Amino acid sequence: MRNKVWTDSESVLAGVLRDGMTIMAGGFGLCGIPESLIHAISRSGVRDLTLISNNCGVEDFGLGILLSNGQVRKMISSYVGENKLFEQLYLEGRLELELNPQGTLAERIRAGGAGIGGFYTKTGVGTVVAEGKPTREFNGEIHLLETGLVADLAIVKAWKADREGNLVYRKTARNFNPMVATAGRVTIAEVEDLLEKGEIDGDHIHTPGIYVDRIIKSTINEKKIEKLTERKREAA
């Protein structure tokens, strides 16, 4: 079996990155994002990218770094409210945006990974989301046709992996990562803990290694909190 483990985030991306490509990234807000790979993509200088992700991080962290560098041409996203630069670039016409209801985005990614070309959903009917999309009636209700999403490169963050690429995510960091891992023509995972073959119980695997092409040990694990909310202490 070929070796899937690479030494660092630069070498693991060698021969994969190119201008104008589509990159799909796991994560929700700043939770479960592939930080090391994002930084390496930033340093590579590739441009004219289409990014598929629930959101685009914040101005100085996560996918927001690529946005700040002027490397992104288009975003296919669900939530963009925490990134002021995103808003500015879009309103100035310097960034294309394909906005999706969150469940629709999740299903488009899942469908793409499953080889499903499209599906019908009621979500978005009667709104701007429906503009230009074919419709069909099921059981007396109108549904929109949404297409599956596949990317040239999928990047994900996992808690544990073995050398065959079987992945385990931790708690809410699981979010979009399992779906994204299936929907890349090439899938690269960065992991916090790299184990030997057979060290992960098969019943605990979230993403089977058949979906994962390359693996690196993550070097950036900041795990920033996007919005910190604290409860005031009650008086003693």
How are the SSEs ordered, and which strands pair?
Blueprint: H1 9-12, E1 22-25, H2 35-44, E2 49-52, H3 64-68, E3 72-77, H4 84-91, E4 96-99, H5 102-114, E5 118-121, E6 135-138, E7 141-147, E8 151-162, E9 167-168, H6 177-182, E10 184-195, E11 214-217
Parallel strand pairs: 1-2, 1-8, 2-3, 3-4, 8-10, 10-11
Antiparallel strand pairs: 5-7, 6-7, 8-9
Can you give keywords for this protein?
single chain; alpha/beta; 6 helices; 236 residues
How would you characterize the overall build of this protein?
The structure is a single chain. With 236 residues, the protein is of the alpha/beta class. It has a single domain (9-116, 151-217), classed as 3-Layer(aba) Sandwich (Glutaconate Coenzyme A-transferase), CATH 3.40.1080. Helix content is 19%, strand content 27%. The protein is built from 6 helices and 11 strands. The strands form 2 sheets. Strands 1, 2, 3, 4, 8, 9, 10 and 11 form an 8-stranded mixed β-sheet that branches. Strand 1, helix 2 and strand 2 form a beta-alpha-beta unit. The mean pLDDT is 95.
Span from first to last CA? 62 Å
Mean pLDDT: 95
CATH superfamily name?
Answer: Glutaconate Coenzyme A-transferase
Give the CATH topology: Glutaconate Coenzyme A-transferase
Question: What is the rounded Rg?
Answer: 19 Å
Shape: globular
Helix percentage: 10-25%
Discrete helix count:
6
Number of strands: 11
Which stretches of 5+ consecutive residues score pLDDT under 50? none
Strand content: 25-35%
Classify the secondary structure makeup into a structural class: alpha/beta
Order of helices and strands: HEHEHEHEHEEEEEHEE
Whole-number total of structural domains = 1
State the CATH class. Answer: Alpha Beta
